[in-house]
Every structure is written in C-alpha cells, then in structure tokens.
Amino acid sequence: MANNFIGSGILFGTGSTAATLTGLGTLTLLQSADFNSEADEELIKDASGNTSGVVKYDHRAKATLEFIPTSGSNVGTLAVTSYPSAGATLALTDALFTPISATWIVDGVNLTRSNTKALMARINLSRYLQNSVPA
Length: 135
Prior knowledge:
Strand content: over 45%
Number of helices: 0
Oligomer: single chain
Largest sheet: 5 strands, antiparallel
Helix content: under 10%
Number of strands: 7
Shape: elongated
Structural class: mainly beta
Strand order of the largest sheet: 3-4-7-6-5
Radius of gyration: 19 Å
Number of domains: 1
C-alpha cells in the first residue's frame, strides 16, 4: 500500500517561497534554506606589510534550498522525469524575505531517496550582484 503524505512543510522565518523546477514540481514543501553573500578581496599593504585597505569585488549571493518535490499538495503525486541542469535559471519569490526574490543560476541539484523518508531535493544556486547576472 502506498503511503499518503498529508500536511504542509513549515519553514519558520520565511514567506511564500515559490518556484517551479522542470521535472521537480514546486517548492511548496520547502524544508530548509541557507543564504549567504560573499566577495573576492584584495588587501592593500603599506610599506611595513600591514593591511591599510581592503577592496571587495565580484559580489555574489549563494543559496541552498532543501525541499520535498511535489505536484500539488500530495508528495506521492509526483513522478520525477528530469531535473534542472547546472546553468539553468530559477525565479524565487518570498514576501517576507525579499533579498532572495530574484532570478538565480542553478549550480547543481542533488536528489536523495530513502525507504524511510520522502524524496528530498537539494538545489544550490548563485547570483552575481555587480552585473545583475542572471539578468
């Protein structure tokens, strides 16, 4: 007998993060989300070799989302037929955490299957902020 999954994923501190991934359904059952910003740097040294200035460049944002792929509200209704490849783009929206509301580049996708848990998808994303890549 097939398991019947009922309920909604809960992610405290976020709004309605919504996106659709080719072959993976929607992010309605988002389980976790990690976001960070980073940049390359050049240290400016004085004659003694001590840092006297810092230049930050190539600003970018990175994100990792973990979710249970769904088609509608029932996890069991999705058959995974494909998943986005590296380089594809994904639009995210979140009414309560607007910095993530943008188009992101897919860096990679990992799918985890188990006989004790629902199918879990982890997607790594990036954005390059200086030149608005992806546009």
